[in-house]
Amino acid sequence: MTTTIFLLELAVVLAMIFIGAKVGSIGLGIYGMIGVFVLVFLFGLKPGDIPIDVMLIIVAVITASSCLQAAGGLDYMVSVAARFLRKHPNQITFYGPLTTWLFCILAGTAHTCYALLPIISEIATRAKIRPERPLSVATIAASLGITGSPVSAATVALLSTSLLGAQGIGMKEIFIVTIPASIIAILVAAFVQNFVGKPLEEDPEYQRRVREGIINPEEEARAATESEAHPNPRAKWSVVVFLIGVLAVVLLGSFPSLRPAFDGKPLPMNPVIEMVMMVIAALILLVGKADVRKAVSGNIFSAGMTAMISIFGVAWMGSTFFKGNQEFIVGGLQGMFTAYPVLFAVALFIFSIMLFSQAVTVNTLYPLGISLGIPPMMLLAMFPAVNGYFFLPNYPTEVAAIGFDRTGTTKIGKYVINHSFQLSGFITTFVSIGVGFLIISFL
Q1: Alpha-carbon distance 81 to 79, whole Å?
Q2: Residue 413 and residue 246: Cα distance in Å, rounded?
Q3: Spatial separation of the C-alpha atoms in residues 421 and 427, rounded to whole Å
Q4: Which of 59, 71, 207, 312 is least surrounded by CB atoms within 10 angstroms?
């Protein structure tokens, strides 16, 4: 009877995730809330914990990032990156992905790559390099940056006092493990990708588009350099302010003694990040003379609020389900995950495909990993597994990369899952987790 009820509840959770992901946007959060209602009112489960702190941190970080975008700071960062990339066109498969990864590390969102992807595509095309090669790795690298960014929603959730933050894991461990693991994974993927597909000039689709006049290199070059020709003079200072905020978060997270202490304990990082990033948002508005209305109408603010609503519904549903069935789940899986903890990475990967968000995946599954007794450092090494949503080519960054490749080399295959991002995605996931386990073995 217990098993039957558990399977019915699991079916409700998976159904709500599937329907919400299919609806898209805030649908994941809305249908997640329907799942909470069904679990509580029909199955009698006690409501789980609402990730309030994580949601407030997302609000603070996205507010600062949106103000940076409104002040022209992101455009300025893109122009600097573009000048660097154009100086090294033959190494675009390596430098392009590292650039999108770095942007995500600094801004905390993979959506910063939208401004860089057309530049990477244009540089590769001009250098007669198959754009699929750098674009596929660059798109995956942007998502990988989320697992190393001190201001990403996923990292903040992971280090919250309700998850690994209470297990002695902080910013210092993130930088020691995930940063080098990510860099090595990106370089390996870029190296392999250099041998994928025919050379650009031999690609049939590219040849067809050239014959039909679909590709217009002059127009692409003009669009890519427009932001460089008309820079916002205040944009540079808004970037400086934002980077000061990121540095402050890193330092305060790495050195607890810098934080105010109450009752003999340093102030937790959750409110610290919230305060710092909101102050930075105010300073960006002052220094960059940004329009607040422009900040809330940008794509970063929209994506951030969508993530928050998704976390509200899906993470609450996941918490309600796992806490209501904790004894049953732990009893059934503890032996397997204790003997083979790497299998938890498989669960993270599969759920991230369905949940469509690293932060939501962290909030949904990591409480289970902790309750199963998986060592905290192992859970940290498996962090990159939450990037599995590349498996289906419907994530906005993947869709954007396909659209930006005017040569047609970046594409979705006949069977959907045989798309341009699959190889890079699996390479970066396996390598980053493997390197992460290697690093923690020496700690």
Answers
A1: 5
A2: 39
A3: 10
A4: 207
Going from the C-alpha of 311 to that of each of 157, 315, 356, the distances in angstroms are 10, 5, 11
* Residue 284 CB partners (closer than 8 Å, separation 6+): 64, 67, 68, 71, 73, 238, 241, 242, 290
φ/ψ (deg, to 5) at 245: -65, -45
Highest-pLDDT range among 68-82, 238-252, 279-293: 279-293
Structure tokens given for 29: 């959060």
| Whole-angstrom distance, CA of residue 261 vs CA of residue 280 | 22
CB crowding 161-196: b at 16 or more within 10 Å, else e = ebbbbebebbbebbebbbbbbbbbbbbbbbebbeeb
The interaxial angle of helices 73-87 and 217-229, nearest 10 deg, is: 130
Name every residue whose Cβ is closer than 8 Å to that of residue 281 and which is 6 or more positions away in sequence: 60, 63, 64, 66, 67
Question: Mean pLDDT in the chain?
Answer: 81
Nearest to 38 by CA among 222, 313, 429: 313
User: 276 is written with which tokens?
Assistant: 């710092």
- If one counts every other C-beta atom within 10 angstroms of the C-beta of residue 268, the result is 17
Q: Is 306 helix (H, G, I), strand (E, B) or coil?
A: helix
Identify whether the C-beta of residue 113 lies closer than 8 Å to the C-beta of residue 399: no
What distance in Å separates the CA atoms of residue 149 and residue 107, rounded to the nearest whole number?
A: 8
- Tokens representing residue 103 in the block: 């942007």
In tens, the pLDDT along 15-38 reads 887 788 677 667 878 888 999 999
Q: Please state the rounded mean pLDDT for residues 202-207.
A: 72
Q: Name residue 165's amino acid.
A: G
Q: Which of 291, 306, 284 is nearest to 111 (CA)?
A: 306
Cα distance between residue 443 and residue 438, in whole Å: 9
Tell me how many degrees the CA angle 169-369-308 measures, rounded to the nearest 5.
75
With a cut of 80, say whether residue 42 has pLDDT above it. Answer: yes
Nearest-angstrom CA–CA distance, 236 and 73 = 6
| Structure tokens, 443 | 């700690």
Contact of 76 with 236, CB cutoff 8 Å: yes
